[in-house]
Write a structure and sequence with these properties.
single chain, alpha/beta, TIM Barrel, Four Helix Bundle (Hemerythrin (Met), subunit A), eight-stranded mixed beta sheet, 18 helices, 8 strands, 42% helix, globular
Length: 334
Amino acid sequence: MARLRRVCNFGPAGIYAFLQPHLSQPRFKPLKNQAHRFCIAPMMEWTDRHCRFFHRLLTRRALIYTEMITTGAVLRGDRARLLGFDPAEHPVALQLGGSDPAALAQSARIGADLGYDEVNLNVGCPSDRVQEGRFGACLMAEPRLVGDCVAVMKAAVKIPVTVKCRIGIDDQDAGLSPRENRDIPPLDYERVYRLKRAHPALPIIINGGIPSVAAAAAHLDHVDGVMMGRAAYQEPWRLLDVDPTLFGAPAPFDSSRAAACALVPYIEREVARGARLHAITRHVLGLFHAVPGARAFRRHLATEAVKPGAGAKTFLDALAFVGDGADAARTAAA
């Protein structure tokens, strides 16, 4: 297969037929879940169950994804820990990493039985670890295998099966860490737009460097949906604009502070079950970015949330550093 220069990430879109040219007369089914209009990207080391619950407080309509979970972990690991999710997370998709069709089919079936709304195959992560396991971006060099994997996954479950991939691969893809993969890849949105124009029946969701909900809305003039990653995680306050801007629905809360207060019962429940406070609050640190008191909020959590016995009171003490007008102050500063 001729080498292709990596341009940007895009997905998830049900594009398996595009990736398996040996099939004749490919058929693309429209994605019925309107949540594909805006998705929060699967991000290794970031989008765990605590992160997903927090993001769901900020947007009721977005489709959210797990971290990539390998088929080996699904089949032989602690499923309750790896695959557990709160019912409030719906719609939520399970992203799988693997290249063995039988293992992927079995893992997809497990995910569907647990109640996930979609199963997504990772054909995009370029790190050394995934290449050694023969999954992730290296699968783009094996389109027939990807086609076989998706075909058996689709036969195994009734929920949507999608693929998250790159436009192309080259030698520069090898060895990127998850952090580098979020920061380094160059972007070429126009190439994704051309792909959509060439395959109008193929649902395509664009991903890569989307900085704001307003930028996401602009992409929707060209593709079926938008996936936001780094901006959604590092500046989660942006997610409060998703429902009103992209879905015509009210925001779940009228301020970042109100959303933070709504997280308190979850913190109380999870800490009582043995979770460390820091495991939850590490995902909340960017909620008050660029507003008075934000630095003190982050500093308090960084020093106190890691301590044994830290709980909801620690979080509320941190929240006290941020005034009630946090969102107004951010808007005024913008």
